[in-house]
User: Which sequence fits this backbone?
């Protein structure tokens, strides 16, 4: 059994974002990077499924700059078997269809039984690269998968989709299939020291690839700070303790909710 | 033509589709075109009649026995056929979980992608400029479409008002569509067994996000909730980490609440969280990051460390309550 896991490098959640002078994108130099959250869960679920099956291969694939190598290395340290790095220097300019097309090109020959991705990236949040990829590869897909019935794995697999407002639904899928994984599907393991050592010997295939031509790509014209719509009273003027005193006073006497 | 998707479960309308109708009607006005609604189903159970009361060219009921329950394969086939027939300029949908599941697949069949989760649009020099939230709500991006129609656009819930959908009277057209093999079999949807806490009844909610840092620190938020006589809730990552049970989760995949007072501690304010609490009467946000999107919906904010603010709040409230 072979599972390909798609993982993306994004800026760190707590990083302060600085917008470029021409507003075309953010300043990416010196900004801390990390793996997009739900992709980490996609990897974890792939590893658990391989463990449940007792055999198989987990292949990590990432489209990104040279820096994205660290996402792959980290995945290998956690237990993935090998990596494929599709090197592209301006991944933020790729539209989801273009990214899917690049990945399809590379993993077609892999013939995976399963493909896992996070449900959407923490930066651009298109939420569709996986779905488009499934269509390009001609395999079925499910999005927002929050549980996998590992014991059901045969030439089919039973997965639980999250619906809105606390509803869920199980589906049975014929393999090969692609699933986009929701955060929280299982607790993510840490890389062990042994894992980190072993990762050094694992293969990472590098493929340099430009964006494929795609005339219907959506194009970002400008990025900017959202315009605030609500008047927020900011209390304490940077002093959180003073703000707390003022807040309690306001909640009591102005808003009258306590 | 502009096509708008009517989402339903067994003929019961998903109300966000009315927002999609409003959005589609707005786009239609701007490009001087008409809107038609599409209902994929086996039996519409009177839904077409309900939708025909809006100002639409027609309501297309795309039927096939295989469309009796939602599957991405079934819906993709139905949509592909309708799009080939109607040759729309735009296909407009609400960005629901179901739409996320099938819309990119339909678009890909036409060598397109979806301009997804749009919060607003404007016309600039004869072209539409759409705005999406990126970086989990921290920034906005203006995005333009390129290439030829059809264009696929989905709007975030709340971007348009459902009660602004214009009324009218549309004809109903029934189309039997072809659906090929369905490669997934769905079971019945269900709700996880109901929890002990019903946060929808709480008057005061203290909600913790990732800014709380560790499970031990949740005790501090609990103390604040206790002195206020309120309940503890959380953002999704806190429940994902199992620091609090899932029934405490607020947001699109958790509970929707509207208490008198909602205090968000170390919560950034991602849309999926905000949809679950934005109707609270008074919203307080305590966050280190002055640009955190939660401040956009807060009535009162403290920019700073929650570990400085919360102990002081507890003391002050204790004093008040004497
Ligand atoms: C399909 C889907 C469904 C989802 N459903 C839900 C849902 O139902 N509910 C939900 O909540 N999320 C949901 N999410 C996830 C959502 O997108 C966000 O990832 C999540 O809400 C972020 O949680 P957070 O604000 O706690 O964490 P973060 O976004 O990491 O924010 C943490 C915040 O804490 C602040 N902070 C850090 N330290 C301190 C400190 N010492 N003092 C003060 N502030 C501090 C930081 O500045 C930051 O703003 C869903 C996502 C998807 C894609």
Assistant:
């Amino acid at each position: 059994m072979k599972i390909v896991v798609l993982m993306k490098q994004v800026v760190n959640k707590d990083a302060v974002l600085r917008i470029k002078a021409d507003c075309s994108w953010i300043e990416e130099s010196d900004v801390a990077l990390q793996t997009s959250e739900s992709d980490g869960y996609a990897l974890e679920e792939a590893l658990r499924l391989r463990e449940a099956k007792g055999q198989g291969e987990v292949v990590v694939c990432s489209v990104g700059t040279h820096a994205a190598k660290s996402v792959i290395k980290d995945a290998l340290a956690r237990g993935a078997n090998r990596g494929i790095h599709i090197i592209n220097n301006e991944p933020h300019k790729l539209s989801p269809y273009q990214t899917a097309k690049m990945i399809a090109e590379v993993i077609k020959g892999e013939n995976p039984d399963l493909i896992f991705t996070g449900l959407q990236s923490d930066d651009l949040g298109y939420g569709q690269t996986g779905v488009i990829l499934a269509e390009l590869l001609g395999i079925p897909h499910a999005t927002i998968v929050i549980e996998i019935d590992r014991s059901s794995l045969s030439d089919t697999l039973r997965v639980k989709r999250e619906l809105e407002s606390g509803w869920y639904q199980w589906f049975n899928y014929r393999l090969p299939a692609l699933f986009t994984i929701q955060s929280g599907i299982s607790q993510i393991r840490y890389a062990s020291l042994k894992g980190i050592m072993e990762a050094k010997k694992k293969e990472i295939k590098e493929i340099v690839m430009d964006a494929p031509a795609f005339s219907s790509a959506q194009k970002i014209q400008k990025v900017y700070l959202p315009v605030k719509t609500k008047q927020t009273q900011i209390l304490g003027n940077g002093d959180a303790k003073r703000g707390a005193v003022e807040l309690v006073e306001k909640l009591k006497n102005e808003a009258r909710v306590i | 033509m502009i096509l708008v998707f009517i989402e339903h479960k067994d003929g019961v309308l998903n109300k966000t589709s009315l927002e999609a109708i409003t959005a589609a009607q707005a786009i239609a006005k701007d490009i001087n075109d008409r809107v038609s609604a599409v209902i994929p189903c086996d039996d519409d159970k009177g839904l077409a009649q309900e939708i025909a009361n809006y100002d639409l060219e027609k309501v297309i009921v795309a039927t096939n026995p295989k469309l009796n329950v939602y599957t991405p394969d079934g819906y993709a086939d139905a949509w592909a056929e309708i799009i080939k027939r109607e040759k729309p300029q735009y296909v407009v949908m609400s960005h629901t979980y179901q739409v996320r599941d099938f819309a990119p697949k339909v678009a890909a069949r036409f060598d397109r992608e979806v301009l997804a989760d749009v919060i607003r649009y404007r016309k600039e020099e004869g072209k539409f400029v759409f705005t999406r939230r990126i970086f989990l709500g921290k920034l906005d991006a203006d995005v333009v479409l390129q290439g030829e129609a059809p264009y696929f656009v989905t709007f975030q819930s709340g971007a348009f008002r459902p009660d602004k959908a214009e009324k009218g009277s549309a004809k109903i057209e029934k189309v039997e569509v072809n659906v090929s093999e369905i490669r997934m079999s769905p079971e019945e949807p269900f709700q996880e067994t109901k929890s002990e806490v019903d946060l929808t009844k709480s008057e005061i909610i203290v909600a913790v996000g990732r800014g709380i840092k560790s499970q031990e620190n949740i005790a501090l938020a609990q103390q604040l909730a206790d002195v206020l006589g309120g309940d503890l809730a959380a953002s999704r990552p806190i429940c994902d980490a199992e620091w609090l049970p899932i029934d405490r989760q607020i947001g699109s995949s958790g509970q929707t609440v509207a208490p008198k007072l909602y205090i968000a501690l170390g919560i950034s304010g991602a849309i999926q969280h905000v949809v679950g609490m934005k109707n609270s009467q008074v919203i307080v946000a305590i966050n280190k990051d002055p640009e955190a999107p939660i401040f956009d919906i807060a009535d009162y904010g403290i920019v700073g460390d929650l570990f400085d603010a919360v102990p002081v709040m507890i003391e002050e409230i204790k004093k008040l309550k004497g």
